[in-house]
Amino acid sequence: MSYKVFVDGQEGTTGLRIHEYLARRPDIEVLRIDAEKRKDNAERARLLNAADVAFLCLPDAASREAVSLVDNPNTCLIDASTAHRTVPGWTFGMPELAPGQRDAIRASKRIANPGCHASAFILALRPLVDAGLVPADAAVSATSLTGYSGGGKKMIEQYQEGGDVRLDAPRPYALGLAHKHLPEMAAHTGLQQPPVFLPVVANFYKGLAVSVPLHLSQLKPGTDASALRHALAERYAGEAFIRVMPLGGDPATVEEGFFDVQACNDTNRVDIFVFANAHQALLLTRLDNLGKGASGAAVQAMNVHLGVEESLGL
């Protein structure tokens, strides 16, 4: 069976990568808009309504506008923006989120693609909150180290042009503590409040790692590193794209004491680690911010919705 797919925002970083995934698929007919008509709402509406699945790779306001153009009840929208990730009526497009999430994605015509930082954070915390090991009212912090491709075309050009020595060092940002991923980071972990979150962009193209420090004394009594890892491994048993790594990592993943943030690049894989001593634990989750953190996740959600093999094209 062939499916018609349209990418609204096909020239952006996420849209281009989705096209790369779709190019591998004989079951997909890609609908394309002429360059001179990219801002023509009548043509956009025609293609959106002609599609079985339409990806919205747009800024938030433009995504909301695109949704208003769709009147075909059979068109499934997968929105890669922040606009609908906590909006009632939209399904969070993370199949591994919880039991029943795949059924919800399959049944929904409105799917919100998770953010890159949020994906790593949620995948590490949700099983622990569900298991009662991390209290829902816990005060949690998180730091994310990411490549510059997550900043879009302007940031990519800034880094690739070179000449600015300030870009040689990592750059913390979102210092107003209001990063756009925070609402979903709380809503989809079950935490009652969002984390204190510090994202840091550095001079490498892609790859992302989110770290979450935990004091074992503030968790469910008796919780140790083994219990944390066991809860993660139990939740993700059989998941094709998630690996729960050995406690403390191993020589293949942590060499000479250094962690490779880019080791999941060019995959749709997520690696989750637990590092710990007798009193503290550190959750560390890595992924490709353009893969499982954006375009790969969107295609995975499409596959689940269409009822085809979940890893098809990934």
Name its key features.
alpha/beta, 22% strand, 314 residues, Dihydrodipicolinate Reductase, domain 2, seven-stranded mixed β-sheet, 2 domains, Rossmann fold, single chain, six-stranded parallel β-sheet, 30% helix
Characterization of the model:
- The protein has 314 residues and is α/β, with parallel strands linked by helices.
- The chain folds into two domains: 3-114 and 293-306, 3-Layer(aba) Sandwich (Rossmann fold), CATH 3.40.50.720; 116-289, Dihydrodipicolinate Reductase, domain 2 (2-Layer Sandwich).
- Helices cover 30% and strands 22% of the residues.
- Helix 3 links the parallel strand 3 and strand 4.
How would you summarize the topology of this molecule?
Layout: E1 3-8, H1 13-22, E2 28-31, H2 41-50, E3 53-56, H3 60-68, E4 76-79, E5 91-92, H4 101-107, E6 110-112, H5 116-130, E7 141-147, H6 152-161, E8 171-172, H7 182-187, E9 196-202, E10 208-215, H8 225-235, E11 242-244, E12 254-255, E13 258-259, E14 270-276, E15 280-287, H9 291-306
Parallel strand pairs: 1-2, 1-3, 3-4, 4-6, 5-6, 7-9, 11-14
Antiparallel strand pairs: 7-10, 8-9, 10-15, 12-13, 14-15
